[in-house]
Amino acid sequence: MSKSYHIETYGCQMNVADSELVSAMLNDSGYKETDDINSADAIFVNTCAIREHAEDKVHSRLGFYHKIKMQKPSTIIGVLGCMAQNLKEDILESKPYVDIVLGPDSYRKLPEMLSDRAKIDTSHIVDTKLSRYEVYDNLFPSRKEGINAWVSIMRGCDKFCTFCIVPFTRGRERSRSIEGIINEVKIAVQNGFSEITLLGQNVNSYNFEGNKFHTLLSKVAEVKNVKRIRYTSPHPQDMSVEVLDVMKDYDNICNYVHLPLQAGNNNILKRMNRTYTRERFIELANLIRNKLPKVGISTDIIVGFPGENDFEFNETLQVMDEVKFDSAFTFKYSSRPGTKASGYKDHVSENEKQIRLEKVIDKQKTHTKARNENFINNIEEVLVEKDSKRSDKQWAGRTDSNKWVIFDKNTEKIGDFVPVRINSANGITLQGSIEKIYEMEFAT
Ligand code: SAH
Ligand code: SF4
Ligand code: F3S
What we know:
Layout: E1 4-9, H1 13-28, E2 32-33, E3 42-47, H2 52-71, E4 76-81, H3 82-86, H4 88-94, E5 100-102, H5 110-119, E6 125-127, E7 148-152, E8 154-155, H6 166-170, E9 174-175, H7 178-190, E10 195-199, E11 207-208, E12 211-212, H8 213-222, E13 228-232, H9 241-249, E14 256-258, H10 266-272, H11 278-291, E15 296-303, H12 310-323, E16 327-332, H13 350-373, E17 379-387, E18 394-398, E19 404-408, E20 417-426, E21 429-434, H14 436-443
Parallel strand pairs: 1-2, 1-3, 3-4, 4-5, 5-6, 7-10, 10-13, 14-15, 15-16, 19-21
Antiparallel strand pairs: 8-9, 11-12, 17-18, 17-20, 18-19, 20-21
Helix pairs in contact: 8-9, 12-13
Iron/sulfur cluster is lined by residues 157, 159-161, 164, 166-167, 201-202, 235.
């Protein structure tokens, strides 16, 4: 009987994509995935180290796996991903029940390690060597059914923002071949995925043998039957006019840009090593809006970076007012041991961080509302993605500018594009109804 495994994934989309690769390798070696964690022969957790909170969640899950292992000592427990890379000594010392610790560049070894382990009962298997080359180019991930296929195009990060652990957990930047990527996109489309999201820690610094991100993006857009293309996460420094021109030229590239601001004050940006100024950032956001009039722009903001004073924080609020992002992911600064900023003095108090976070969230709410209200009465092309959370009589789907729209079900099915008239904007979602008059036109 084949052995079974269960895998849980935390962190960013890169981890989701990596877990799909791990599943593919395990499936190919005769293991079977199970949703039932209690009966699994092996439990894997793909981990994230971006903030302390992310690590806490994994520690608590590991406690739970430990309980399962006490009931069933043959269970193998494996820690994969960014925390494995970052905290291997700590895990091995404090959690002796963990059998396998593998960093993000070592997944190819997993099937062999499992079979070796079945032969001889070694204590721990650890591999956290980062590679300058591994991009898993020839592997095809095992995707669950759905609308969107994550396609990893580059790995690692060389930017070394001073707050960030990623360059340490993911290693140096390296890009995958255009051929390998296009091949994977074609297969994903054949398998019924209508949306492709190109992934990388620094997706737009893609460079394969001199071919930059905009070249790759146009090649992906040319693949037959790719309905929607998204990409994440770009860095403002690498956001070129060429990328925006390609986005404008191809209808199937979504009108959506994630442009992480982090902070709106030049002194803080410098201390974060973000490589742009507030002026440059605002200019870039304006350029994006001019080139792509219907674009949705989202951002990431960190409050309470070490040394950030009230004046500097208020400059972040000002940039928000100037750009009026469609949405924002907001974070309290979390000190990551080993990063440059963790050694900076003047850490901001937890209380002050909380106050600043609430201010940023409140401001973003008003901007999201205003941006969304601009959509009222528009007829938007919405891709039907899933049942709405509130009611199985309603669908949830996204516009190409990445806004969620809720509307009553009719005869359409998941994966269809439908014209939806936007009736109201509530919180971060839009409410609409299928536009009958246009239905025929869209259907042809
Ligand atoms: N490569 C992506 C970032 C990935 S991490 C980029 O450059 O945009 C996602 C977000 O987490 C970052 O944009 C940042 O806002 C946040 N983040 C990273 N490190 C953090 C830390 N130490 N504390 C709080 N937020 C952090
Ligand atoms: Fe982290 Fe900066 Fe690299 Fe993004 S660009 S992954 S924030 S170091
Ligand atoms: Fe987390 Fe690693 Fe992604 S630290 S955000 S899982 S690259």
